[in-house]
Amino acid sequence: MIDHAAQRSLNALLAVAVVALVQGRCLTGVDWVDEVVFPEDYAAYQKEEAEAAQRRQEYQAEQARQRAQQQAEAAVPQGEFGPPINAGAPAVHPPVINSISFPDSIPGNHTNIDGEMSFSDAGGDVNRATMTVVHSSGDFAGTDWDPSPYLLSGSAYAGSYYFYVWCEGQQSVTLKLTLYDAAGVASAGKDFSFSCT
Questions:
Q1: Are 161 and 71 within 8 A, CB to CB?
Q2: 7: helix, coil or strand?
Q3: Rg (CA), the chain
Q4: What is the DSSP string of 16-82?
Q5: Which domains does the chain show, CATH number per domain?
Q6: How far apart are the C-alpha atoms of 164 and 176, rounded to whole Å?
Q7: What is the pTM for the complete model shown?
Q8: Is the dihedral of CA 92, 98, 102, 103 positive or negative?
Q9: Is the predicted pLDDT of residue 42 greater than 50, yes or no?
Q10: Considering only CA atoms, which of 137, 125, 118, 132 is closest in space to residue 180?
Q11: What pLDDT digit, counting tens, does each position of 128-159 carry?
């Protein structure tokens, strides 16, 4: 007489062994106990295994992401008391020309005429000024210079620089003044006009 319960167990063990062989696994005694399932439970078993594999992949991906983040943080120089000292891009603070004071009319005979530009610079590192020709009814050329030696009042952070202009002959002129800091960041240009008589 055939014992049907024993036959079912034997069939289940054979099914587990076949699955293990297909997957290339070697079963231990513990595996035999853990892996024994009946055919009607096999679909549920496969679903549980797939879910467990998905959870393992998600866990491994999260662990890899955390390791990569820790390595990136370790590569950034740390300040003495915590957060990275080089976090993010540095703030850009261009110089600002607040105003320009210059006569409306100057003699056209090579006489240097002084002007004054009021400025501010958060970095205190203005090291270049340019004067470009916007319009000239005659022959007029632009120039550039380091305004630092021409500080008239205030400090490198806020004050006024003096400059001079001369011209030859009669003409009307519009010039644009621009300041630059040590990083090469430019102020907005500011125009001023005069006539040479």
A1: no
A2: helix
A3: 41
A4: HHHHHHHHT----HHHHHHH---GGGHHHHHHHHHHHHHHHHHHHHHHHHHHHHHHHHHHSPEETTE
A5: 4-84 (no CATH), 96-196 (2.60.40.770)
A6: 14
A7: 0.55
A8: positive
A9: yes
A10: 125
A11: 999 999 999 988 899 999 999 999 999 999 99
